[in-house]
């Protein structure tokens, strides 16, 4: 099948992948749009994994104040080069992440940042709740595990569903950005401020 420019353009608009990557994906999948999207996603995840070890010491600090001036966020987003840090797409990513933090109020960046004492306290609460609900002892630990996954999803920025597209997590958004920018992109730190907290 011949790959037309319009097919490449449509795939590029849908995925933000490069022209050559879109052509390659369409050729590899005989022009099937859905398979090409999956191909690019798979390729992007493997490229993101390769780039995640690279040092990201450039970047920007984004400040966001939600209208009404009741919530504010300061976020440091890093990449490998100042060239990428100065692009509008990188600035938009930082803005969207700060907006997400203002709205979703994650307590931690990753699950590795959650103190062990907090993890154990949450497990104990879920374990006791399951037993009070009369759940059989042999499935209580599976219930605790499932509820802990939900806790991490709600509490950790990287695992939260992105507020502008809940089909992807913040981790997915960062992996897509790594692929799009061609270099490592990480959230180094952030602070969320709310009046009265």
How would you characterize the overall build of this protein?
It is a single chain. The chain has helices at 5-15, 19-28, 33-51, 82-85, 88-104, 116-132, 137-155, 170-181; strands at 58-65, 71-79, 161-162, 165-169, 186-194. Helix 6 (116-132) packs across helix 7 (137-155). It is 55% helix and 17% strand. 26% of the residues are buried. The chain is globular. By secondary structure, it is an alpha+beta fold. The model has no long low-confidence stretch (mean pLDDT 86). The termini are far apart.
Helix residue percentage:
55-70%
Question: Number of helical segments?
Answer: 8
SSE order, one letter for each helix or strand = HHHEEHHHHEEHE
* Overall pLDDT score: 86
**Head-to-tail CA distance between termini:** 60 Å
Q: Pairing-aware structural class of the strands and helices? A: alpha+beta
Short characterization:
The chain has 197 residues and is α+β, with helices and mostly antiparallel strands. The chain has 8 helices and 5 strands; from the N terminus they run αααββααααββαβ.
List the helices and strands and how they pair.
Layout: H1 5-15, H2 19-28, H3 33-51, E1 58-65, E2 71-79, H4 82-85, H5 88-104, H6 116-132, H7 137-155, E3 161-162, E4 165-169, H8 170-181, E5 186-194
Antiparallel strand pairs: 1-2, 2-5, 3-4
Helix pairs in contact: 1-2, 1-3, 2-3, 3-8, 6-7
């Amino acid at each position: 099948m011949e790959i037309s420019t319009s097919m490449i353009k449509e795939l590029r608009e849908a995925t933000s992948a490069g022209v050559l990557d879109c052509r390659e994906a369409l050729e590899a999948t005989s022009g099937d749009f859905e398979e090409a999207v999956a191909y690019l996603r798979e390729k992007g995840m493997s490229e993101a994994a390769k780039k995640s070890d690279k040092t990201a010491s450039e970047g920007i600090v984004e400040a966001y104040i939600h209208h009404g001036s009741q919530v504010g966020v300061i976020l440091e987003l890093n990449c490998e080069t100042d060239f990428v840090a100065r692009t509008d797409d990188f600035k938009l990513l930082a803005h969207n992440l700060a907006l997400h933090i203002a709205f979703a109020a994650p307590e931690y960046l990753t699950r590795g940042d959650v103190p062990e004492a907090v993890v154990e306290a949450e497990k104990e609460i879920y374990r006791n709740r399951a037993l009070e609900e009369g759940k059989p002892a042999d499935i209580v630990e599976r219930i605790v595990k499932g509820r802990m996954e939900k806790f991490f999803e709600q509490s950790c920025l990287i695992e939260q569903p992105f507020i502008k597209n809940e089909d992807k997590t913040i981790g997915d958004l960062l992996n897509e950005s790594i692929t799009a920018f061609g270099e490592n992109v990480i959230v180094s730190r952030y602070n969320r401020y709310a009046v009265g907290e």
